[in-house]
Amino acid sequence: MDGTITVDDPEDARLSDFRHLNDQAARRQMEGDEYFLSEGWMSIERLIDSAHVFRSVLLSPSRVNRFRPFMELAELQGVPVYVAEREAMHGIVGFDLPRAVLVSAFRRPLVTIEQLAATSTRLIVLEALNDDENVGAIARAARAFDIDGMLLSPTCTDPYHRRTVRVSMGEILHVRVARAATDEWPGVLDTLHRRRFESWAMTPAADAVDVWSADVPERLAIVLGAEGPGLTQAVLDIATRRVRIPISPSVDSLNVGHAAAITFAAVSRR
């Protein structure tokens, strides 16, 4: 197939970027801060107009024709496009993936917290989220409601995990991301406060302010915690306001991705 490279050996060293797809610990060690994987047509389209740079591509034969127009773009010039039959693909990625569309791309550097604070009016701050799909859903909603960037706690999951990119429909690739160091958390919220941000700690606590009646400040950081434990007491103490989404008393809580989207809609209302 013209312009592509057919591979038959799953152990081919050129395919090392695509191994152990379902082993998150192995993937994080392999990728480091160098590259990440994008999967599916939508996320690839979003990758093209992002600041990330293509590294290599791996396709099933049935996906080659649809991918050919991408190969004409400047962003794909010189990028190797590998094609593997089903058996070889299984050996490469570690499971059956008959309709593979996988792209490896170089990670652009994270922005600094100061850069994010100096150039934003709306931020989402995530503490210790460990579910890649929740982070992806939050990134997609953040883009939909013009949130300027995302600040992660030291223990928050990798924003460029394959599932995060896929669930975000590639929108995470257009989100400016900063990550706090261990010795900066949660004091980094005071960095935002010095930049005239208010911080809203989202909590289901009954004494928190109703998000629909809260006055929305000019600069706002919305702080969300992981499913189950929620925000730590240290974050609740340092935030300028505790805010809740009013829901039926018969329901304990909302999924954090849903809560983020509702909050973004509330603070974006005219």
Write the layout of secondary structure elements.
Blueprint: E1 5-7, H1 24-31, E2 35-39, H2 41-48, E3 53-59, H3 64-71, E4 81-84, H4 86-93, E5 101-106, H5 113-118, E6 122-127, H6 132-144, E7 149-152, H7 162-167, E8 177-179, H8 188-194, E9 198-202, E10 209-210, E11 220-225, H9 233-238, E12 241-244, H10 256-268
Parallel strand pairs: 1-4, 3-4, 6-7, 6-11, 7-8, 9-11, 9-12, 10-12
Antiparallel strand pairs: 2-5, 3-5
Explain this structure.
The protein contains 10 helices and 12 strands. Helix 3 links the parallel strand 3 and strand 4. The longest helix is centred in the middle third of the chain and has 13 residues, at 132-144. It folds into 2 domains: 5-106, 60s Ribosomal Protein L30, Chain: A, CATH 3.30.1330.30; 113-268, Alpha/beta knot. The strands form 2 sheets. A 7-stranded parallel beta sheet has the order 8-7-6-11-9-12-10. The chain starts with a strand and ends with a helix. With 270 residues, it is an alpha/beta fold. The mean pLDDT is 96. The protein has helices spanning 24-31, 41-48, 64-71, 86-93, 113-118, 132-144, 162-167, 188-194, 233-238, 256-268; strands at residues 5-7, 35-39, 53-59, 81-84, 101-106, 122-127, 149-152, 177-179, 198-202, 209-210, 220-225, 241-244. It is elongated and about 65 Å long.
